[in-house]
Amino acid sequence: MSVEGVDYTTPERPTVASLKAAGKVFACRYGGPGGAWKHIDLAEVRELTAAGIAIVANAEGTADGLLGGRAAGVAWATSAADHFRALGMPSDRPIYFSVDFDTTSGDWAVLDAAFDGIASVIGRDRTGVYGEYSIVRHLAGNGRARWFWQTYAWSGGQWYPGNHIEQYRNGVSLGGGTVDLNRAEPADYGQWGVDEMSVETDQKISDLHYAMFKNDTNDRPLGSQSRDAKNTLATVAQIQAEQKVLAEKVDQILVAIEELAARIGPLPANVIITGGELQLGPAE
Question: pTM for the whole thing?
Answer without folding.
Answer: 0.70
